Amino acid sequence: MTPSEHEMSLVEHLGELRRRIIYVLIVFVLALVGGLFAAGPVYDWLIRSGSAQAFQLNAFSFWDGIGIYMKIAMIIGIAVALPFACYQLWRFVSPGLRPQERSATLRYVPYVLLLFIMGTAFAYFIIFPMAIQFTSSVTKSMGLHETYGIAQYFTFMFNIVLPVALLFELPLLIMFLTGIHVLTPMRLRKWRKISYFLLVFVAVVITPPDFISDFLVAIPLLVLYEVSVYLSSIVYRRQLRAQEEREAQMRIEK
């Protein structure tokens, strides 16, 4: 391949990547618009259930209500656009994959939304109440009266829920990267100490500053990493078997 042909190939790849990103942005904007219509019922449910019932929430700005609706719509938009984004990523890398690898990696896409919902539920029903209980207990122990703005409440909630929901995509991400030969289970085991440190750091950042909360969040994240390593090894063994079958077929044809 001449330098000019290589340059054209690179330009074509960049153009294809830009086109995929535009598709994802269009879907995200459409989902964001739809999320604005769904934001009202979702807001009503969030206010009537869970930790919000323990507080008298206030608006400290004219834009607080609109801001909350936009944040809820953004979460809905991310949830809808995430599987589509993963599908577009698959479409971008699929020309470089073998037919077997192409069909195998495509099967991961439908589970993206499922894991996002599981991560959201885990964060909202388990981590967020612990964070609220801890911060509220500290505030009361200092003799302070709790008067919270609705923007503060939802920002605190989203800062916990969204990162955990995205971290629940880790097994699928690792399986996908293993499927396209970017990662191997051996490499993941080699990186285990660094990965553990990063996951524990994330758990400490998104939870209240007490050992129990950090522990209850860090353990599921570490389990997710080990599950990811196990799933990566399954994908890797299948790749080795497929390669052996191709080599055997080639020897027979010769």
TrEMBL record:
List the PROSITE patterns: TATC
Give yes or no: UniProt keyword Transmembrane helix.
yes
Q: Mind telling me which residue stretches traverse the membrane in this protein?
A: 21-46, 66-90, 111-134, 154-182, 194-212, 218-236
Q: How does it sit in the membrane?
A: Multi-pass membrane protein
Record bears the keyword Membrane = yes
Q: Which locations, inside or outside the cell, does it occupy? A: Cell membrane; Membrane
Q: Which keywords, in A-to-Z order, does the entry hold? A: Cell membrane, Membrane, Protein transport, Translocation, Transmembrane, Transmembrane helix, Transport
Q: Cite a single Pfam family from the UniProt record.
A: TatC
Q: What does this protein do?
A: Part of the twin-arginine translocation (Tat) system that transports large folded proteins containing a characteristic twin-arginine motif in their signal peptide across membranes.
Q: How does it assemble?
A: Forms a complex with TatA.
Q: What is this protein called?
A: Sec-independent protein translocase protein TatC
Protein family: Belongs to the TatC family.
Source organism per entry reads: Paenibacillus brasilensis
